[in-house]
């Protein structure tokens, strides 16, 4: 089982404040320890206010590498690109000085781009903090239930994997993705899971029950013995 800490807040503002403080603390201690820090980021609405706060924070951003937790296999100009979202929320003002490591490359498919992405991620040290979201289907990163590539995502010793999700209301039409593997998620001093609303709280509680990691991939994170996980929930 992961080492689990649960922090439930009364408002999104309180969650953002606590999350921002945790991110700053993890990055500072990474720099103190290794001279540089690695932050793994997800898309989604929950982390956006903390990203905006960090963007305006005076910090040694030139010592920070920011890398994606997952990405749709689309160009950065695409409206659904997570990289574009990170550019417009986090990599602004002071944080624009951070070194950004993309998941997307010029390969025509995620599976063809996997080796190049793995090479880029292999050069990164253990992350200081990894931010995960969770979908209503129990996916986290782009580890979607029963997706093509999920077995590799759960079992590989590599950091990244190509995923082709089963199309649903949650995935939308773009099902081809690159994702951190479970091993890639676990290669982090701290993992943070952000959950908003009662409906997703129920999904999270269900993920904590015994069952298949293929049905609810978040279970694999909760079950992982080496993950230090803090769950942030707000209404
Ligand atoms: O790539 C995606 O499909 C989304 O980014 C997704 O994985 C998101 O992180 C979660 O659905 C949490 O979203 P919220 O932060 O909006 O709850």
Automatic annotation (TrEMBL):
GO terms for molecular function: 6-phosphogluconolactonase activity. It is an enzyme of class 3 (hydrolase). Belongs to the glucosamine/galactosamine-6-phosphate isomerase family. 6-phosphogluconolactonase subfamily. This is 6-phosphogluconolactonase. It comes from Pseudoalteromonas phenolica. Pfam families: Glucosamine_iso. Residues 11-222 form the Glucosamine/galactosamine-6-phosphate isomerase domain. Pathway: Carbohydrate degradation; pentose phosphate pathway; D-ribulose 5-phosphate from D-glucose 6-phosphate (oxidative stage): step 2/3. PANTHER family: 6-PHOSPHOGLUCONOLACTONASE (PTHR11054:SF0). One of its GO terms (biological process) is carbohydrate metabolic process. The keyword Cell division does not apply. Its EC number is 3.1.1.31. Hydrolysis of 6-phosphogluconolactone to 6-phosphogluconate. Keywords: Hydrolase. It catalyses: 6-phospho-D-glucono-1,5-lactone + H2O = 6-phospho-D-gluconate + H(+).
């Amino acid at each position: 089982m992961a080492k689990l800490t649960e922090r439930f807040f009364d408002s999104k503002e309180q969650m953002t404040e606590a999350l921002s403080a945790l991110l700053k603390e993890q990055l500072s201690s990474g720099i103190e320890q290794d001279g540089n820090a690695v932050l793994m980021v997800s898309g989604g609405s929950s982390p956006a206010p903390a990203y905006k706060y960090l963007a305006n924070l005076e910090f040694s951003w030139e010592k920070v590498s920011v890398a994606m937790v997952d990405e749709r296999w689309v160009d950065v100009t695409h409206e659904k690109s997570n990289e574009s979202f990170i550019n417009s929320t986090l990599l602004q003002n002071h944080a624009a000085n951070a070194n950004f490591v993309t998941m997307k490359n010029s390969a025509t498919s995620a599976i063809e781009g996997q080796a190049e992405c793995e090479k880029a991620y292999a050069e990164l040290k253990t992350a200081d903090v990894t931010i995960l979201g969770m979908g209503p289907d129990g996916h986290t990163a782009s580890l979607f239930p029963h997706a093509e590539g999920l077995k590799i995502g759960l079992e590989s010793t590599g950091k990244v994997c190509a995923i082709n999700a089963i199309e649903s209301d949650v995935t939308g039409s773009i099902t081809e993705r690159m994702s951190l593997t479970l091993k890639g998620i676990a290669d982090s001093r701290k993992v943070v899971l952000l959950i908003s609303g009662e409906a997703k709280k129920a999904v999270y509680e269900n993920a904590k029950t015994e069952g298949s990691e293929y049905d609810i991939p978040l279970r694999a994170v909760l079950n992982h013995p080496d993950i230090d996980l803090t769950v942030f929930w707000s209404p």
